[in-house]
Design goal:
Layout lengths: L1 H29 L1
Length: 31
């Protein structure tokens, strides 16, 4: 149960962090 919960929580967080980093990099590049 713990492994399933861990995966279900970490995956979305990792995806959001990756997306935010990509957007941030794009903003820096356009500046």
């Amino acid at each position: 149960a713990l492994d399933t919960f861990n995966t279900a929580v970490v995956s979305p967080i990792y995806y959001v962090m990756f997306t935010s980093f990509t957007i941030l990099a794009s903003i820096i590049m356009f500046k």
